[in-house]
Amino acid sequence: MTVSGNVVPLHQLRRDAGQAANGLPPKVLTEWTAWLRERIEPGWRPGEWDHDAHLFSGDVDHAGTAVYRCDVAACDALTRIRRGLCATCEKDRRDSSLGLKEFKAGHVPDRNRAISGERADCHVEGCPRDSVLWGLCNAHGTLRHRDLQRDPDSGLEAWIERQTPYPPAPACLVAGCRYDARATWGLCGIHHSRWKKATAVSRGRRSAPAPAWLERQAPFLNVHQFSLAPLYPVARLEMLYALQLRDERGQKIDPVAVRQAVAHLVERVDSIAAATVEQLPSGTQANVDALVRETHRVLRSAFERFEGVDPTSRDVLDMSELGVRSLRGGTTQRPLGLDVTGIRQPWLREILVTFIAETKPNTTEARRGLRVCTAVSRALDARPGGGMDPAKLVFADMNAVVDTFRVLPKLDGGAMSGKQRGGLLSFFFKILDYNRAAGHLDGMSASFARHSSHVVKAEEVDEDDVGKALPESLIAQLDDYVDLLGQGVTHGKMTPEQVRAMARAVYELLRDTGRRPYEIAELRTDCLEHADGEWLLIWDNRKGRRLNRRLELERDTVETIRTWRAVRDTLDLPTGSEGFLFPPAGENGKIRHLGPEHIAAMIRKWADNVPILLSEEFSRDGDRVPYDRSLIYPYAFRHSFCQRYADAGVRMEVLRELMDHKSMQTTQRYYRISHKRKREAVNVMRLHTVDRKGRSVPMASATAYEARSVAVVFGNCTEPSNVKAGGKACPIRFQCAACPFYRPDPSYLPVIEDHIRSLKADKEMAVMMEADGFVVRNLDDQITAFKGTVETLRKLMETLGQDERDEVEEASAVLRKVRAAQGHGGAVALGMPGFPGQRGGSTA
To answer: pTM (2 decimals)?
Structure first.
């Protein structure tokens, strides 16, 4: 709104008007009302919204209306709670001794009560008037009352049969009222009482109700209805406009919440947009307060547009106005303002707002855009001219921008990885390229552009970096506090016990399956499959575009899913979540399952609640130091799962299949052993090698262990020709236990034992096939020889002291991991089904 060419702020209009604090000048009020009428959809919600009566009657079949049928099978009444009971059935349930399921299935409500807020017709056959007392209309009820005075024993049913119907009564004068009018003033009983109360001071001088009073009367409302009639005319239009915008954003309309909001606003404000925050109701129900605040915010923004203020020119942008999507898929429902005061260059602010308004990113991407544009603004601010004129930008300016991203820290000041910095720089180029392609930067200098040199190099990975996997000792500590999972976390309508049960199931699936957080969140209720005596988890790898994957499960993990499903069966599930194992928090949004962000919040809260967590490092005093809890997040359990099997020496190709990695390089990272650790392990193990007869034959040095022997499947081999051929030219076809050049050590114990089991299976097969005796004898001899090797190595370990034994076991784990990465390791069973035993023979 402009006066004399200048924009007049809303608070100035109120002050200059000399009216109530909430009033608007008549001219402004007229123009504001006209502006609203132009933007209100007259055909909104056909069948639900009655424009003439200002009455909304929710349709239970409309997904955008928070109205549902009573869950009692024989009841037709409505409730605002999905899978809930209507008020009458809830009262009957409290008086009943039946369980909830039995009550829903078998309860039959009283048919004489009002159904869906409608009064039944009079019980006198053919009488169309509303029943009031004894199932009779007012007229027949009066006759019945007189008859009872004369004959108290008169039966009702017989009396009804003798009566004749009355003609239809006129409707109540209040628009939308479904009850019959009485003779006085043309009002039903409810509105007759309201008019008497409104004119109590004029007792004896009452007249017929005025049209102005009738216009602001709401009819009797049921749970599925609300009326905007009680509001002042402009507030009525404002509320309708805000509700239509709410509907466009995909938010549900709760008739009860709207009705309560109207009741709070009706006597407080005549214009919601002109109201101050202090005038708004607060301290009522949370959903009502939220609805009023949202309505006020939306209308204040609309009034600014009416005044001619561009919403994108504000210092704090409303993401919901820009159409930013929530992480769940729909338009964001909360203000979530973007403070763009840190972007000094007008053109840079403009391309950010344009990118957000036209591409409709989600809230995370919008905030990411703000982050990168703020960094660019700081870089340009230090350049000559401050980057204010896009036509004068040069290549050196772009170099300065890229240099800023190369050293960009985290928001908390911590170090950011090169991959993260490179991703932020790429996002800025994405914003810039979009605006160029859309024609919004035609006046920008062509020199201010991306070049092939404008990259952020990733840092070299430290070989000694343990990665992001959580130590097994830490996971054991966390397992001691699983009872704290879900404490202090809310999730929709779920009770604290149900939230804790869900949080525990999510954690155990993260820990025991190694799936990504989003893969756990998206599991379906039918995610279990039983095949060939094994239980399988069915999951989707959307990242790799590979769906319906199978993962073999332990019995404990199967029990975890079954236990949660039993709890889930008791939930009031949000609409659309029936097919998912873990439901979302509420009814809104396109995503109908638990979100990864909710999993992250649950794990973060849990990690903070655990009283003590110790790392594997020691202080100078010899005490274990506290573990950094910021390293405990959902994806870390996937790293831990993979690292657990890599450390055990599982072959790389087997682990790749288990993790469903697309690239072998991804799996290979978990097998990275530094040269220092490998050398230390070899130095330990070279002292514990034996020959085929069990005699100790330690290697002279680590170099001899590596250079004069070659790792084959069941131990090291020192036969010169085989060493020269890299273990691929065994003269006796890898019958190691019979070879004088065989040098096993304790690190080979698991694969030797696995080979013995394979040999026994081969022998049984040979006997069944009636193979020649020398084949069976050969297998028997190999079994006996390898058993002797195992016995020797076991006795060797038993003779060691505890410290030395721990040292040998740690060195064994390192060497098995190295051999697995090189393709010389057998699969090791760790309680996870699906790792087939490796039969004898060269890895070649």
So the answer is: 0.56
Query: Could you tell me which of 696, 780, 778 has the C-alpha nearest to residue 745?
Result: 696
Contact predicate 206/36, CB 8 Å: no
- 273-to-29, 190, 601 alpha-carbon distances in Å: 11, 32, 36
As a whole number of angstroms, the distance between CA 797 and CA 805 comes to 6
Strands (E), 459-571: 528-531, 534-541, 546-552
Q: Give the pLDDT confidence score for residue 9 in this predicted structure.
A: 41
Q: How many CA atoms lie within 13 A of 118 on its CB side?
A: 12
The token duo for 443 is 């006046």
Short-list 774, 803, 813, 558, CA closest to 685: 813
Interatomic CA distance for residues 502 and 488, integer angstroms: 13
> Is 59:65 a contact under the CB 8 Å cutoff?
yes
The half-sphere exposure of 247 on its side-chain side, counting CA atoms within 13 A, is 20
DSSP state of 717: E
Q: Which two tokens stand for residue 118?
A: 């409608």
DSSP state of 811: H
Helix (H, G, I), strand (E, B) or coil at 143: helix
Return the residue matching tokens 């966390």: 478
Residue pair 69/78 in contact by the 8 Å Cβ criterion: yes
User: Degrees (nearest 5) of the Cα angle 512, 515, 553?
Assistant: 45
Please, what's the largest Cα pairwise distance for the chain? 125
Mean pLDDT by 10 residues, the chain (844 residues): 36 37 74 92 91 90 88 86 83 85 85 52 83 78 84 84 86 83 78 82 69 87 90 92 87 90 84 82 75 86 83 73 64 64 90 88 88 94 92 93 92 83 93 91 89 81 55 90 92 89 95 92 92 89 86 92 92 83 79 88 93 82 84 91 80 84 78 64 78 78 67 77 77 79 84 86 90 89 88 86 82 75 47 34 29
- Give me 326's structure tokens: 């929530």
Q: Between β-strands 225-227 and 78-79, what pairing exists: parallel, antiparallel or unpaired?
A: unpaired
Termini Cα distance of the chain: 83
- How many CB atoms sit inside 10 A of residue 339's CB? 12
Which is nearest to 20 in space by CA: 279, 228, 261, 238?
279
Which residues touch 435 (CB under 8 Å, ≥6 apart)? 351, 354, 355, 441
Question: Identity (one letter) of the amino acid at 432?
Answer: L
Q: Are 176 and 166 in contact (CB under 8 A)?
A: no
Q: Specify which residues 118 forms β-bridges with.
A: 115
DSSP structure class, residue 202: G
How many CB atoms within 10 Å of residue 282? 11
What pLDDT does 16 receive?
Answer: 37
DSSP 3-state percent helix, strand, coil across the chain (nearest 5)? 45, 10, 45
Nearest to 310, CA basis, from 354, 341, 275? 354
b/e string for 397-429 if b means 16 or more Cβ within 10 A? bbebbbebbeebeeeeeeebeeeebbebbebbb
Helical (H) or strand (E) element with 768: helix 749-768
Is the CB of residue 669 less than 8 Å from the CB of residue 814?
Answer: no
